[in-house]
Fold each of these.
Amino acid sequence: MKYIFKLLFSLFIASAFLTACSNDDKINLIDVSDFVNQMQSVNENMVSLRDGSTYGDKKEMYPRDSKYILDDAIIQLEKTIRFFKNGTEADPTQVKVDAALAAANKAMADFKATQRSEDLPPEFKQAELYVNGRAGGYIDFGYSPDYSKFGESGKQAFTVELWFKLKYTEGFGSIISCFNEDGATQTRKGWVINNFDNSRVRMTIGLENWGLMEPGVNFSTTEQWAHFAAVIDENGINGEQIDGKPVVIKVYLNGELIEQKTAQSGKNYLSNYLETSMVAFGQPAGIGGMTEAWRLSGYIKDFHLWKSAKSQAEILKIKDKEIAVTGAESDLVCGWEFSSTVKNDEDIKDLTGKYSAKLVGDYQWKTVD
């Protein structure tokens, strides 16, 4: 009798468990369907906004680059929808749906905020800036100690990131430089992003005691845009170490980590204490003038200098314009877009309004259709 009772009790428990699981499955199925419907509705709104908007230079149109704001948000939301539908998202909740919808709604708000309130003046056209450094052209950003000094010696942190497109890769030259090397005084100061030996793009930083650190990426591509970023933090990047030494510099190409290096004993980063202009596609010679060497020809856009060590996630979002750099950021030292013609080629204000760049010598604004 006891055996029969135990058997019936066990069957009862198993039946209740299966019934509960079955009910849970039904609840989850209904919930996931509702979640998907919520997200699909907002995704359709984004697609409609993107495809139904007019892009151009006139009032109430949107800049062509603004489309990328919605493109990226649509890709992300569609990925979330797919994960909910195929079960990749193991814990589907309304909280996660709300977060995805909030990101999508923010993207739509950011997109709408770029709508032109007036016609773009005829002289301001979307364009790419070509600088023929091999013929003596360059960009002079002027001098500021803030371009190369980022706090207390041995504890400095900064990020340089930009888009560039090389016309040629022959020889050695500077893409953008805040660097000085002086053999007489045995000092190397500041930093320079450079093309080396036709095959490598590097971030070179000067160190104390005649030192250098030069992580880079193999690169020999011409006529193609690439995004390069260098992150320096002498306090150590995210606590990472190699062979017991802190990682203090990383370089990225198109958002991908390519190379990293550790601190050198007794050799901290040495800022450029000379009153040397920061220059693109050329190299300043000491305090005044330009060298005839270190010349490159190419294009530059969306150049930003930050007084903080950006994470890879932040670099990707800046690269993909998921983060719109406005000039109001507390850690932005300076930034230039170089994405449209300007009123005065000798007085191009940066995003913060604090600095001005001028175009010198052989250069050309190439309008984008």
Amino acid sequence: MNRHQLELFKVVAEKKNFSHASEILHISQPAISQQIQILEEELGVKLFQRTTRKVSLTDEGKLLYHYAIQICNLFADAEKNLSEFSKVVRGSLTIGASQTIGEYFLPKFIGGFKELYPQVQITIQIFNTQHIAKAVHEQTLDIGLVEGQVDGEDLNIIPFLDDELLVIVHPSHPLAGQKTVDLEQFSLFPFVLREKGSGTRQVMEDALTKAGWDPENLSVVMELGSTEAVKSAVEANLGISVLSARSVQKELQLKTLKALRIADIKFMRKFYIVTSSKKYSSPSMEHFLKYIQTEKEVNIENI
């Protein structure tokens, strides 16, 4: 019996499903089944009752699971403490980021972090906010960085950056010469928006609702799955939109887009770190979380 076998066993026991464990561990289902079978043969006991849809622990399995938690935690503590002695942080991280963070914020964070900890291997996955929250809950992601507030059992949710959304228009648009627009004017024009479920769209809709305006009354002519696609559509003068100030800095400098604000309404949001309260926090994970929480946001240029 070794640590690798115990960790596989622990995940299968918690997920009660070999295929879910396979997704979390990034190991094929047959390989997990083989290791569990070897473990059962070594111990001379049956650890799981298997059905076509799920597995459940036998009495012997429940006893081993109790010890597996303690043993895996001891290994984790040893690695953490030894890494502090050596001052070398190693390991791997799988980070999920919603689109605005992944495209416009995360590269800067990753670049700075890799300079400090070059031996940490990082994998980035880009999804919308709800998908990331689900993946963190299922422990297929180590860390989620999302644009909107999420709720979920067993999730730790920590705010770490503020972001403002701006109204963006084509330079020839009737609103382009204004610094601000009132809500009545804003609602008269066709809109190009991110898909439902994106943090950007949710923040806009929440702010409009709070101001007493039903977002369903907006004339949405197109829904697109990425910020870049939305910007391209606005540059083609297909409609106006609401996007992160950070995401349109280059276009504002090149004057291919114009930005303005709505009078008396601010589309403000926080970015959140999402982690699972049930997942072991490795040294690489702890150092990355500490790093991004101490980084200061670059100021957005005045518009």
Amino acid sequence: MIRHIVMFSAKRPEDVETIHQGLKLLQGIPAAQRLEVSHNQKTDQLGNEIDVVVYGEFADDKALADFKAHDLYQQSIGIVRPLRELRVAADYEVP
């Protein structure tokens, strides 16, 4: 299984909800076994720069590639990219 985690910060605080809604489009893509889009609770004592987190689980690399090739993925990028300041992604395999 591949875990896919992506964290976003907004350029402007008023854009956080638009980013959140744009990323929720990803939940319509069937390639993920599990996909969550959530606001960061911002309770960490050292850093709270991240506004929205995407957490996904995929059967394998092909499923993740299929997810990224889906039309809704491109639509989400079109909404989110102009509004985000930071995007940090990590993919790792779980045995």
Amino acid sequence: MSKRILMLVGDFVEDYECMVPLQILQMTGHDIDVVCPDKQPGDHVVTAIHDFEGQQTYSEKRGHNFPVTAAFDAAKAADYDALVIPGGRSPEYLQLDERVLSLVREFFAADKPVAATCHGPMILAAAGVVGGRSCQAYPSVRPQLEQAGATWSAPSEGLDSVHVDGNLVSAPAWPANPAWMREFLKVLG
């Protein structure tokens, strides 16, 4: 049965963490609306490609133009079955937008499935929805999640693991996309 899913993005969202889940969810028959605060359908966000090339942290390159397909201001959790929050750079500033935090809180209040990866859980911490929950994220997000009351579930060394806590499906980075989306689809039903 097709579900209606909201994907929350912003400029410099991680390319593989928005494009690959979008395609997986579309391929499995779901309808996805992509929203970004202050952008309208027909606009786009610029993605960032993060790669693991042997340095102490990931490298960053400009990615693609990723289309926004719905108006953020019209998005309400009541109209969707689930929420997807990719990582990248965009969560750094999206977590400062009270409209974003309010929307995320709506999904958690309704106990709807939420998939968050990489830096995406920064938004969950800022929204105050991870207290008493366990989750994964990119390792540098660990202090913020723990300060928000979450229990850290250490990701695998290859950053390809996934963690499920009720309606929350979290992962550390794009290498986890197959596991992340597989578990999200199970939670989605």
